[in-house]
Design goal:
homohexamer, 8 helices, alpha/beta
Chain lengths: 241, 241, 241, 241, 241, 241
């Protein structure tokens, strides 16, 4: 039976740069992937649009369109909470929406931001909200539509300046086979062209590390492409590898 | 093709209490498992034998016999370095022996002690030696018989008082299907009967945690038996789960 | 002069599983013990009652009755803030109530949750509220009934999955002499029968660790029962031991 | 029955600046206190004597005389291993000596250096040796005169630049009643007069912290004198305070 | 061109005890220094005034007058947000005020509290608000008067009990040449006379550490006066020293 | 007066990939730079030469020649201890050599490896030796030629897989103006051509981070080239920036 991947982010660009490989891997295997965007990144991650004189509504519309197109390239669904950014704030309404989303999707794997980011506090807020809503969605006493969820593993994707965010990669995900899809999704974000190369290089560097840590069994080649993740909960497995 | 599991410990009892589940899982799948014991635990872990007045040679012989029997229950080979314990000391000779063992076995997975143990410094020493010999065995410039090895993942098994050893479980291994085999191996260590229940209870507690962290896919039941491990290097994988 | 123990928890079950030994020890010495429960655990820790179709009010009444009975077994008073759970939220009203409680009880020792718990965020919230209210209760400028308090030491009791909560035991409390009282209090919580054994085993395991760390002076036997705690502030003492 | 305090240091000055209060408290209560000095601090802590042109033997004699006098002021015995300093090195002979000392003294409390000190690596080495010899002295299989010891608690005393050594005080020991004795012992070290005030001030500052953390029961005044310690093992106790 | 120093604190006393040296150094070089005080410390740091029976308004007026005088001694401007203390709370209004202040001052260096303080939670709150407002002030999409700011480095000043606040000094600032100015500013705070000596001694101790770490180039003497700081972001430089 | 930079490494390649920018910056300002190579990297970092069938002596000669050439490109002197690698071992002889080197060079800044590297234990060993020899070289009681040294700051350069080595960059050094020199030095290491791009990309990425953290004063452009370092001791300064 197919898995369900739920990706919870603060802003629309996040899933593209940091998790597009994991999303494309999932959908290429026939899994369902749903992205929950808490805001449109309208204030904090749209500097060039503001400088061009666009209105708030125009900016939100443009960020939404872009994100929908990138999600579509990756074969994923996308939802927007429009909770506002810079600052993104934890409210009962947003939490409610995420609980409902968890229960609708019944995720088998969850991706979200790392716990801290001194360069963008919305990321840490999104992490906290995503983690808290996950636990609330497990409780029969928390009312709402749908069934309670199990306890899906949570992976934090890589922040922009990982060492300053306390991010230590403990999972390197080989995304070589869907690399072209990630590249295509990045190219949808035309205003941030300078990041295409940045994240292409990051994919190669994490890939080289994956190769160096891959052991005799996987034996990945040195031109592997990878994304780095950090687990929130211990891995549960039936075989060490 | 079958995997090769290499287990490097300071004393003979260690692989039974802490890693017998992983060993039995491997051999039950047809993998090769080799245990490298750096000492016979003759001074540090044989208190009752010393109190009974046995000689050093008698104690070493008895510990060897016991360990061989336990290894045999688990379907594993066992080698002894007789490097002395309490204290176990890093010497060029012991390192040499371990390099050769790595190259002979060509492990796909390595198990050893955690990096620190203030209750038994031999454990930390064994960890350091095992890690260093692994890197040396990778280098063509380090001479000796056999081929250089790849970069097998290393898992630290659980120390007796984990919180004081900086041990945080990041892998919970479901060993339910080989639990009887682990129980049988523990019972070989007749002099430490009080530990049978201790480690049976630990298997149940780690199993309950495995169940609680297992997610909708694995969906482990609450009577799972598990062993806890901590990775030294990041996991490399082709799918998040 | 008798001591005053103040125990601040998120939910009614917490003081039974995690701190009943400390409470019973205190009351058995003639100290006053007061438990402040911030909620009835009505949403997050009453899954079976919800599944049985009870109303919110019924569940709160039942959790209250149970907690009052368990407190009574331990010789302790209990107060409920009814601040709601899942999520428990920090509000000026709840903080006000706790400041007043601190000033009424004038505690010499405070117990509460650990600072983090990714499996139950109410626990972390309760920790934060308890710590903040303690500092506010020390200030003459924060108005309200009663006298300002001193600076009582704070001990965090053990979370359910300690390693994932950053909990490292730094105090092991010998509760052997009141073990029967703790067992009796646990048995009041009839719906969670599966936890009786879990916490009985935990008491034995922490007891064994207490024995191993107890030194020549205390010289605790290996069948000791203990509870683990973590200090928030440094210990102040007139003798090292 | 009286306690036995064992203080293991790298150099002769260490016990005076860092632990004289704990030693004087012990002996003032009728306990036995034994100081084991691994070296005479002849190379690393005798800069002014070298600059005056003294020979190695003269320096060792002078440091010994001074340390014996300071120990005598504190009512403590002192032993010297003469193992050499700068660098102090772990050797089987030194370890042997310390095992014998542990077994002779049968300490109920052990004091030694913190685990790290980037300004003086002898301190870290002495910590490691003291901790390892303690475990070896517990084992019947490690031969030598005397009886095996129990598991005495170990406290690390405060290094000169604590924050750079990873030292976080978790015990503040009230030494007010023996402060004059500590002052007198410090004054024996005439060549390091500049440190008298430094450690007098430190005693007052740690004392103020002790007062601020002392809770309603102890209720220490703000002119308390204290020494800071960090535990290696968890505290075992019959009452929280 | 002159630098702009922005100091963001919870209460009026903070900038005097913890950062007066940095402020006086800046103004003595001709830089602009602006202090933003989030509250008057009217509830949490005015115990003696409350005990004397003053009203809230009187206390706020007195704390303001004192702070203005101390700022004037240091050559700095000061602003008050009057957001209330004990507890200081993050509100959109306070954040708005700080964003505007950042944009007005265009700081080249920012000073604020450390990230944690279990003895005074207002300090941690002020740290969080200051850090978050700094990032918001960088975004063109966050509206308001003035220009967006760059990314000024942030330094946390030293809390009262540093080790319990996770504060590790990574910058020691030589303030010898403005020490008299700091002393004079401290003396403005007449009600806290007991702290004059405390912080004088701290200045000497941090100064001694500065001397010991100063290397052959700076070569600071042992009677240096210093303040300790901890960076939030990595240092960027054109020369290692 | 000119500074003296001392770079202490395990193997000949280390100073090129990790610190060539700092070295070239120093020499371009007229400072002296001396590289102390503890081994020729003959066993651990010469895999391709071994595979080509060269003898040990040939390999050492070739590594020496290459390193001398690269040092010359950077305007630096280079010394070799020939202490052997894989494993590099701490011996009194090697320590002696480094003490003498410290005293000869009288460094104002020291560069060496990070404290840990699970992929190459020689790096951690070299770090430990370099740090210990530095302290020994400060003591008049440690005999040998030359004058004792002061306390130069120590910077750890970036390991190959920084996150697995506990390496958090706390200094970003702008090396843009000497980038060509670093590139030229890398090209001397012809056998490791695959690393040229790797470290070119790293220089750009660290440069981008330098730009993002550089503040309004430095205001570095986004095409900056940088190297990352981690301090062992606190920075001592006369101005915050």
């Amino acid at each position: 039976m197919a898995d369900r991947l739920l990706v919870l982010t603060a802003h629309p660009g996040d899933f593209v740069w940091r998790a597009a490989g994991a999303i494309a891997l999932a959908t290429s295997r026939g899994d369902r992937a749903v992205i929950g965007c808490m805001s449109f990144g309208e204030r904090g991650e749209s500097a060039s649009l503001w400088r061009q004189g666009h209105t708030l509504d125009e900016i939100k519309a443009q960020r939404r369109a872009e994100a929908e197109k990138a999600a579509s390239v990756l074969g994923a669904e996308i939802r927007f909470s429009d909770a506002g950014d810079y600052p993104l704030t934890e409210t009962p309404g947003l939490t409610r929406e995420l609980i409902d989303l968890y229960r609708e999707v019944q995720p088998t794997v969850v991706l979200t931001h790392a716990a801290a980011d001194p360069y963008n506090h919305d990321h840490a807020t999104a992490h906290a909200i995503a983690l808290r809503a996950r636990v609330l969605a497990q409780a029969p006493g928390v009312e709402g539509p749908g069934e309670v969820i199990g306890a899906p593993p949570v992976f934090c994707f890589e922040p922009h300046q990982p060492e300053q965010c306390g991010f230590t990669p403990d999972v390197l995900l080989d995304i070589t086979e869907v690399w072209d899809r990630k590249r295509e999704a990045m190219q949808v974000l035309a205003a941030q062209k300078h990041l295409w190369n940045y994240y292409t290089e990051l994919g190669a560097r994490r890939g080289l590390q994956a190769a160096r840590n891959s052991g005799p069994n996987l034996g990945l080649p040195s031109d592997t492409r990878a994304e780095a993740y950090q687990r929130v909960f211990p891995q549960v497995t039936r075989a060490l590898s």
